[in-house]
UniProtKB/TrEMBL annotation:
Database matches in Pfam families: Acyltransferase, HAD
Catalysis performed (reactions): a 1-acyl-sn-glycero-3-phosphate + an acyl-CoA = a 1,2-diacyl-sn-glycero-3-phosphate + CoA
Keyword hit for Cell membrane: no
Protein source organism: Nocardia jinanensis
Protein name: 1-acyl-sn-glycerol-3-phosphate acyltransferase
Length: 482
């Protein structure tokens, strides 16, 4: 039965039928694969923006950025169109590149941490099934593209500001993508890309998308507004439960402060405990043991590790880990169990807390802004490996905005090849649950870590191995080992 073009109203909304993310994943995997199946994610499903706290923006674009962030917070509401039109009008005379930069800033500093992990999982399932995945919303395409790029979504459908002579005119091309306009745009896209909407999925949280939802074969309401919830209940659309994206609580701040003190206390205790040996390596290992165990315990963070035997041998090795959170600096040494050092950005040398600790355990600091200097500073790491000490490194070179690993750089693989040691992937599934990319506040929870078997790097195999190892991360994150 198709849905109505507009929502129902009046009276208490009946509850939508329930399903789970796991059920949806199973349906995607067992259902038809291929590009003729579409998966359209509206921004109201992908991210929880209505409850996003208001942000203070600085710099010359602060007014424009603030208005566009306010527009994102009203996604799925009719008022979003008015806010976007006002922002575009105020941006008249600017270049499209200016808006692109503002869109990236909005995502990286304003709302990446509002992405729903459950929806990111569904995005990856559709990509793995070969479906044509689209991100849409009533926002500008320039607001949506950074999220699409981070998630590997190839297509974006959003409102476009009009451009003339490489300058914004202050007007919108056509209409803002809301309601029937968005439904028509998606239908046109489907027709030109060979997509059968009757076999496709649409995810949304807004009743404004009822015209779009009515055209899909599978409608998935995500945290639906009251009108959409009532319609979903009437038509039997199953709405999976998703966890709210809440701000840290006062208890989280307190636990984090205690965890920081525990890190310092544990590190000092570890050094003193092994000081009688006068063996710097033994003291460094004890520093990492207690300097990670104590803060993890106090912050309520438990590690659930599979493949521990792969961390114990063979040694030495280059341990690769996908980097999502500030707290990876505790997670990785905790699961590797000593006789390992790392590589960090040179800015940390002067950090009043982490600088001295990282220097003591033998971390090599690199200048990421200068490729030649970075390569030169990695040369001694090969000697470290040949000397029997393992090295942990994030092959992405920086923290990612989602659980999906970004592009892997070759430096770690070069080191392993030159030293004649294997690489061992350390796959962290959900570190962002305890602390998102730029957050310094820890939340209690369980972090899953899988340590995969070692992979030898043969001569002349570098490009193939980089791609192979990254694919192992993707496969492991999709099908977590039991």
């Amino acid at each position: 039965m198709s849905a109505p073009e507009t929502g129902t109203g009046g009276g208490p909304a009946p509850a939508a039928s329930a399903t789970t993310i796991d059920t949806l994943v199973a349906a995607i995997r067992s259902g038809p694969h291929g590009g003729e199946i579409g998966a359209v994610f509206d921004l109201t499903a992908l991210a929880e923006l209505k409850s996003a706290p208001a942000a203070r923006w600085r710099g010359p674009d602060r007014d424009l950025t603030g208005t566009l962030f306010d527009q994102l917070r009203h996604s799925g509401e009719s008022s979003a169109a008015d806010i976007l039109e006002r922002a575009v009008r105020n941006a008249a005379g600017r270049t499209p590149e200016d808006l692109t930069a503002v869109g990236e800033r909005l995502f990286e500093r304003g709302w990446y941490d509002r992405l729903r992990p459950e929806l990111l999982r569904l995005v990856q399932e559709h990509i793995a099934a070969g479906h044509t995945v689209v991100l849409t919303g009533d926002s500008g395409e320039f607001q949506l593209r950074p999220a699409a790029a981070a998630l590997g979504i190839p297509y974006v459908l959003g409102t476009r500001p009009a451009v003339a002579a490489d300058e914004l005119t202050g007007l919108i091309e056509g209409e803002v993508f809301y309601g029937p306009e968005k439904a028509e745009a998606v239908s046109e896209f489907a027709a030109t890309h060979g997509i059968d909407l009757a076999l496709s999925y649409v995810y949304s949280g807004s009743a404004g998308d009822l015209p779009l939802l009515s055209r899909a074969g599978t409608q998935v309401p995500i945290a639906p507004d009251p009108v959409l919830a009532a319609t979903a209940a009437e038509y039997g659309w199953a709405a999976p439960a998703v966890a709210p994206r809440t701000a840290p609580r006062p208890a989280d701040y307190l636990r984090t402060l205690l965890g920081l003190l525990a890190l310092l206390g544990g590190a000092l205790y570890g050094v003193l405990r092994k000081s009688y040996t006068r063996d710097r390596r033994a003291m460094a290992d004890a520093l990492m043991k207690y300097g990670t165990a104590w803060p993890l315990w106090l912050c309520g963070i438990r590690l659930r590790v599979t493949g521990t035997e792969n961390a114990r041998g063979p040694r030495p090795a280059v341990f690769l880990f996908n980097h999502q959170s500030q707290f990876d600096v505790l997670i990785v040494p905790a699961v590797l169990g000593g006789n390992v050092t790392g590589i960090g950005k040179k800015e940390l040398i002067r950090h009043p807390i982490f600088g001295p600790l990282m220097r003591f355990v033998g971390v090599t600091f690199i200048d990421r802004s200068n490729t030649d200097l970075a390569k030169a500073s990695l040369a001694p790491v090969v000697d470290t490996l040949r000397g029997g000490l393992s090295v942990a490194i994030a092959p992405e070179g920086t923290r990612s905005y989602t659980a999906q690993p970004g592009r892997f750089k070759k430096g770690a693989f070069h080191m392993a090849e030159q030293a004649g040691v294997p690489v061992i992937p350390v796959v962290i599934r959900n570190a962002a649950d305890i602390g998102r990319r730029d957050s310094m506040i820890a939340r209690p929870g369980v972090v899953d870590v899988a340590i995969l078997p070692p992979i030898e790097i043969g001569a002349g195999e570098l490009d193939e191995k980089v791609a192979e190892v990254r694919q192992r991360y993707l496969d492991t994150l999709r099908d977590w080992p039991r």
